UniProtKB/TrEMBL annotation:
SUPFAM superfamilies noted in UniProt: MOP-like, P-loop containing nucleoside triphosphate hydrolases
Biological classification of the source: Bacteria, Pseudomonadati, Pseudomonadota, Alphaproteobacteria, Hyphomicrobiales
Protein name (record): Sugar ABC transporter
Organism: Pararhizobium polonicum
CDD domains (alphabetical): ABC_Carb_Solutes_like
InterPro entries: AAA+_ATPase, ABC_SmlMolc_Importer, ABC_transporter-like_ATP-bd, ABC_transporter-like_CS, ABC_transpr_FbpC, Mo/tungstate-bd_C_term_dom, P-loop_NTPase, Transp-assoc_OB_typ2
Length: 352
């Protein structure tokens, strides 16, 4: 059953179109990530959902109740939506306990117990209840902000780049913690982020915005493996794009003949591979490997995972192809090595 319906939402600021007829349906209890480059409209969409902005047209319906559209505009504080901002937005003069319980009536029955439960939920030690925000680390502050947002049991949680100010290791830990807490509480959530890896790992569904338009929407694995176009392919991760000729279920390209989806139109096209689909095998001395052949141009050492730049010379064109291929640290070739390149899985044919 659809929990949140975003129907043809549009928003402009003067001559600048921020959102152009956005349509998204979200299921209850799911986690959705909205991603896109700067200026794509993702923050504007989040502010419209929260009630901080008014759409020019379209409607917004949450759990059967119209929040915006058709002459209706429910104010932000009456929408039952929780928000966690990038900086946490905690009250500096209040303790952790008072920050978490800010939205709860001061003398409400069970208030202290509710605050204790929320602290346990976000893995905050009870001794922190009396501390002020400046006495907490960045990760602890975000946990307090999450607990405060959950205090009133919101129907929908909005996360506005809540991990971007944290160090890499802490960011990963917080992302997993927040996902676990939201899952346990059954709270539907929308995350706005510029971090593609964060979106893919956090969400059940990903919406890609570009220049105010919804480019693609679906499960993260589908978007990663089958992006609609070049820009989406590159935005969601490292992508190897090759010119190819399609015939039946084969694509002829610099790497030889690769398998593609069936039923595609024959002719010229662009195919995409992810770096992890390619494998390198160093040729034995004095022999030339079979299949696609390249020579290692450079190696970027990265510990357990390294990036190898391979040059492929082609007789049908003056300029060589250069491919970046991921290798584990124990198997990397050396610059100048002749290598065989094998492809695992299916190449994806882009729509344009």
């Amino acid at each position: 059953m659809t929990f949140l319906t975003i129907d043809a939402i549009s928003k402009s600021y003067g001559a600048t179109v921020a959102l152009d007829t956005i349509d998204i349906n979200l299921e209850a209890g799911g986690r959705t990530a909205i991603v896109g480059p700067s200026g794509s409209g993702k923050t504007t969409l989040l502010r419209i959902i929260a009630g901080f902005e008014t759409p020019d047209s379209g409607s917004l319906v949450l759990d059967g109740r119209t929040l915006a559209g058709n002459g209706i505009l429910v104010p932000a504080h009456k929408r039952g939506i929780g928000i966690v901002a990038q900086d946490g937005a905690l009250f500096p003069h209040l303790t952790v306990a008072d920050n978490i319980g800010f939205g709860l009536a001061k003398h409400a029955p069970g208030r202290d117990q509710r605050i204790t439960e929320l602290m346990e939920m976000v893995e905050l030690d009870a001794i922190m209840a009396a501390r002020r925000p400046h006495q907490l680390s960045g990760g602890q502050q975000q946990r307090v902000a999450l607990a405060r947002a959950l205090a009133l049991k919101p129907r929908l949680m909005l996360l506005d780049e809540p991990f971007s100010a944290l160090d890499t290791g802490l960011r990963d830990t917080m992302r997993r913690t927040v996902a676990r807490v939201l899952r346990a509480s059954g709270t539907t959530a929308i995350l706005v982020t510029h971090d593609q890896a964060e979106a893919l790992s956090f969400a059940d569904q990903v919406a890609v915005l570009r220049q105010g338009r919804l480019v693609q929407f679906g499960p993260p694995r589908v978007l990663y493996k089958k992006p609609h176009d070049r820009e989406t392919a590159a935005f969601l991760g490292e992508a190897i794009l090759l010119d190819a000729h399609i015939t039946a279920d084969r694509a002829t390209c610099a790497l030889g003949q690769l398998t593609v989806e069936r039923g595609l139109k024959a002719g010229q096209a662009t195919i995409m591979l992810r770096p992890e689909q390619l494998r390198l095998t160093t040729a034995a001395a004095g022999t030339r490997p079979e299949g696609a052949v390249g020579r290692v141009d450079d190696v970027e050492f990265g510990g357990g995972n390294c990036m190898v730049l391979v040059r492929i010379d082609r007789s049908d064109r003056a300029m060589p192809d250069f491919l970046s291929i991921k290798c584990v640290g124990s198997e990397i070739p050396e610059p100048g090595d002749l290598v065989n390149i094998s492809v695992h899985g299916t190449a994806h044919v882009l729509a344009d």
